[in-house]
Amino acid sequence: MARTPSNKQPINLRGDHINLVSSSLSSFPILQRSSEEKILYSDRLSLERQKLTVCPIINGEDHLRLLNFQHNFITRIQNISNLQKLISLDLYDNQIEEISGLSTLRCLRVLLLGKNRIKKISNLENLKSLDVLDLHGNQITKIENINHLCELRVLNLARNFLSHVDNLNGLDSLTELNLRHNQITFVRDVDNLPCLQHLFLSFNNISSFDSVSCLADSSSLSDITFDGNPIAQESWYKHTVLQNMMQLRQLDMKRITEEERRMASVLAKKEEEKKRESHKQSLLKEKKRLTINNVARQWDLQQQRVANIATNEDRKDSDSPQDPCQIDGSTLSAFPEETGPLDSGLNNALQGLSVVDTYLVEVDGDTLSLYGSGALESLDRNWSVQTAGMITTVSFTFIEFDEIVQVLPKLKIKFPNSLHLKFKETNLVMLQQFNALAQLRRIDQLTIDPQGNPVVNFTLWKYYVLFRLSHFSMQKINGTEVTQNDMIMAERLFGILAHVASSELPQYRLISILGDARKKQFRYLLESKGKKPGIINEENNDSKRLVGENTNRATLNYTTRDFYNEKLEEIKEKKKFCKTYIEDLVKEATEINMKNEALQKLWPQMFIELVRDAVIEIRNKNSYMKLCLQQITDQK
Amino acid sequence: MLSPERLALPDYEYLAQRHVLTYMEDAVCQLLENREDISQYGIARFFTEYFNSVCQGTHILFREFSFVQATPHNRVSFLRAFWRCFRTVGKNGDLLTMKEYHCLLQLLCPDFPLELTQKAARIVLMDDAMDCLMSFSDFLFAFQIQFYYSEFLDSVAAIYENLLSGKNPNTVIVPTSSSGQHRQRPALGEAGMLEGVEASLFYQCLENLCDRHKYSCPPPALVKEALSNVQRLTFYGFLMALSKHHGINQALGALPDKGDLMHDPAMDEELERLVVRSKLHRTSRPHRAKEPGAFGFQRREKQEALERVSSASVPTPYHYRWEPRE
Fold first, then answer.
1. Hey, of B59, B66, B274, which one would you mutate to test binding to chain A, going by the most A CBs within 10 A of its CB?
2. B180 within a domain of the structure (yes/no)
3. pTM above 0.90, yes or no
4. Which PANTHER family does the record match to this protein (chain A) (predicted)?
């Protein structure tokens, strides 16, 4: 009869030994061995590469301990329930689709089911003695139904379709777990395996240490592989693994040296530092962002308030200006058209903060940024000479230009090297406002952001700036270089204005206008130095330093609306006085004129009468002579 | 001087008609304001300069709006100054928006009201799309009409409204059938067919207006001429016609004819000189204020500096003489 190839006996399963039994099991071949073989190899039977498609019925071999069905085409595990002494069953490389038919094999210790078509781990309930379970090369998607295998030492689930690892509790004896070549993204429950020493996770889909964090808690693990995972490509891979798994002796099949451990610890500390630092930075940035958002919101409220007053004062349900300190999430709904600076996340963030600033001052190397009108006061601070000297760019955002004008003298003195000015959302609406910038020492670059500065919509604004501030010889406006042609064009457009403003004004006007400008520049100085305005010598000295531009355009000034109205108010008194004074003069003059005219009218008549009286008087010469003498004697 | 008409007027009326008091008051006011500066070189000189500048039309530069519109002469001077200063903008061919023209006006008069500029723009744009661009000459002539004849135009607007709604303020209500029909024709509003009001009727009302009120209004004969070609007209059509009429422009005397609007040879010469000077200034290194005194305004030097500047000035090419308007 046929013997297994392990004894190098010729295989002969065809022919005589297959008996077609008339029972219902007649479709299965029945295996019979010669009694010699039975005695020689009583506990082992090998049916490797026998082209079997089904498990044959094995009669009279109930004491078999090792059974080998490798490399066949068996689709179901059957007809072995009688072999209750079986210790090792090898069904490697068959076509088995389901684990079944093993429920009687209570002594089974080794079960090899690699390279089959098994989709699910099941029906292993009675195999409590299982020591080795090999299910590699199957189609298993989930680890299940093995929690009772408390004697299992080796579990091979390589080359399956596992996407995650869990449900490993109960495997109290497991020392080796092979999960290579799956699609595993995270690993759990490994810390429930008290004996696990070797864990092979090569060629899976693990990308962060967090997804395998339970490994850190497994004190028994000494050997682990991660190669072929995305995590192994990361720069922090090695030292993170080493740092988190101090118990490891071997990583990716290589021994871990002391040096490596030390390096890992150092690097991990550095990472920690960096993370802390960046966290702090992001907190700061967040705070800055929120402050700016708050300033923006206040600015918008202010602008809306002004617009509402200007357009419709009787609409009661218009967006009423709200107290900025009480901003909470609900007010967001009241301003549906607001775009730009507001953030949908602002709602949540603001509720988290208890105090929100209303302005922001930021120094970033060579740039000083001011947000919100409250920031202007910061110019009064004691800036160190070094910091102030480094500032070359000053940026104003969400501040009214008229307010900025008032602090320009301070800017000039405190930040002498500021050459680039940037304005955004500063309500620049008229060309005239640029006149105010003439009082600075020098500007190389000017950036006027279109947002919140309607003046940029004018066709001629750049030329006007170049014309009025020609003494600065600016290099760039809004990022574009200023060319010779631009300067010439500016001069051509507005040169006559300058000419008219300087040469055609009467002298006293020139003096008064320039005097006003000087007085305004002095205002800050005098206030800060506490001097009385009457000291003329000081003014002279300061004037040398402060005024340095073309006489030609110096009369083109800008007075903020408030100051202008103030001035007009002041003049009202004088005007009234002048009016009454002139009226008095006119009255006098007309009276005199009337009297003169009346006299003119009456005079001819009066003259005639005078002459007639005189002629009548001297008609009688003698009596007249007597009368005169009489008068003379009377006088004495 | 001693013409009988002049003597026929009582004193106050004469003074008021010539606006003498306005100038006197303003002169004294300016004197008070700049007392310290003026006292340096004498009051007589101040008055000379003041009235010279009134004659030349430069007294309105950078003054407040209430003064600029106070007298017809001021208005004319302002128009002229605006033309001279910004003629170059027009010459350059730029089309600007109403807001930008307003900015330019504000350069010369800081508190010039936006309303007036808007009204002027409406004339040009025929009350349509106020953000449109306008050419310099269009705007200037419309602005001239609007600014110089502001009060007159307000009354005309009221008359127009009345006529449009069928009320005729000038004709005596005589309840005859014909005049009733006459009056009611616009009120029936044959919509779409007849726009505006009838020209001749409109002119009659205007004539009455000009007779009744003393403030400046365009010479009625010229107005009639402007209306002679049309049967019906709208309010803005009428204003547009006024602004384009050469005769009225000449009668005002502020601006040259439309064809000559860009011509000003003397100023162009001056401009060339300025441009050349600026070119030289730019090529040489611009000096910082660290070297004071070069452009510095020291008190004792300032007078000289100013004197240098004013002596270099070119006398106004068109000597504007203030002619009595009949």
1. B274
2. no
3. no
4. LEUCINE-RICH REPEAT-CONTAINING PROTEIN 49, PROTEIN PHOSPHATASE 1 REGULATORY SUBUNIT SDS22-RELATED
Asked if residue B94 and residue B156 are part of one domain, the reply reads yes
Residues B248, B140 share a domain: yes
Give the span between the Cα atoms of A531 and A525, in whole angstroms.
8
Question: Does B111 reside within a domain?
Answer: yes
| B151 close contact with A: CB closer than 8 A | no
A292: pLDDT strictly greater than 70: yes
The number of CA neighbours under 13 Å toward the Cβ of A293 is 20
> What beta strand segments (E) does A297-418 contain?
360-364, 367-371, 393-397
Mean pLDDT taken over chain A: 80
List the domain range (segments joined by +) for residue B141.
65-169+196-265
A481-525 confidence digits (pLDDT tens): 989 888 888 888 888 888 888 888 887 787 777 776 666 665 555
Q: Please indicate whether, in this complex, the C-beta atoms of A551 and B275 are within 8 angstroms of each other.
A: no
Q: Is B286 part of a structural domain of the chain?
A: no
Q: Answer yes or no: are the C-beta atoms of A524 and B265 closer than 8 Å.
A: no
Tell which residue, A385, A404, A452, A444, has the closest CA to residue A424: A452
CB contact under 8 A, B107 and A568: no
Residue A205's pLDDT is what? 93
Q: B240, B265, B290 — which closes off a domain?
A: B265
Radius of gyration of chain A measured on its C-alpha atoms = 54
Question: H helices within B34-112, ranges in order?
Answer: 35-39, 43-56, 65-68, 72-91, 98-108
Where does a domain end: B265, B296, B320? B265
For residues B29 and B52, state if they share a domain.
Answer: yes
CB contact set of A268 (below 8 Å; sequence gap of 6+): A239, A240, A243
Number of H helices and number of E strands within chain A?
12, 22
Contacts of A545 in chain B (CB under 8 A): 289, 292
Whether residues B15 and B164 share a domain: the answer is: no
Number of domains in chain B: 2
B74 lies in some domain? yes
Residue A527 has what pLDDT?
Answer: 53
Length, in residues, of chain B: 326
Distance CA A498, CA A468 (A): 9
Q: Could you say which residues from 16 to 55 on chain B have a Cβ atom under 8 Å away from some Cβ of chain A?
A: 21, 24-26, 28-30, 32-34, 37-38, 41, 46, 49-50, 52-53
